[in-house]
Amino acid sequence: MQAQVKWDGKLGFYGVSGSNHAVVMDVTKENGGGGTAASPMELVLLGLAGCSGIDVALIIEKKRLKVRDFEVFVKAERANEHPQVFSKVDMTFVFEGENLTRKGLEDAVRLSLDKYCSVAGMVNKTAEITWTVEIREQ
User: Fold this and answer.
1) Residue pLDDT tens, the chain, 138 long
2) Are residues 68 and 130 located together in one domain of the fold?
3) Which of 31, 56, 96, 137 stands the most exposed, by the fewest C-beta atoms within 10 Å?
């Protein structure tokens, strides 16, 4: 696996993954950037939500749960000292579907975060990851 980034001359970067997909990164105006894109740490949170989301989607398909839609919301706190890693991450998985049971969905999330999601495996080295499951009524 590989990736590269090219500096924009300020505090932003244009990144290209080894599979030739692009992403733009920047920092907020308050921190001296242009505020034109997600920061690298925001991308880590998006990666965590996406990684776990993929796992959960595969697990609920395998369990034949009738999920019509789901979202993952992530909030994080960072350490005050450099390198300012994540110290706490809270994830909320919100599901919509038919005849969903909390246990089946919680089992899917637990499997993802404890066993399969490689991003969670890295983030949990510095941060406590907590999570909840919500079932949205129709």
Assistant:
1) 999 999 999 999 999 999 999 999 999 999 999 999 999 999 999 999 999 999 999 999 999 999 999 999 999 999 999 999 999 999 999 999 999 999 999 999 999 999 999 999 999 999 999 999 999 976
2) yes
3) 137
**Residue 111, C-beta contacts closer than 8 angstroms, at least 6 positions apart:** 55, 59
H helices, E strands: number in the chain: 3, 6
pTM for this structure?
0.94
The boundaries of the domain holding residue 15 are: 1-37
- Kindly report the number of other CB atoms within 10 A of residue 111's CB atom: 16
Residues in the chain, overall count: 138
* CATH number of the domain residue 72 falls in: 3.30.300.20
Q: Which of 125, 117, 70 is nearest to 95 (CA)?
A: 70
Residues 41, 83: Cα–Cα separation, whole Å: 11
Identify any residues that bridge with 74 across adjacent strands, giving them in sequence order: 91
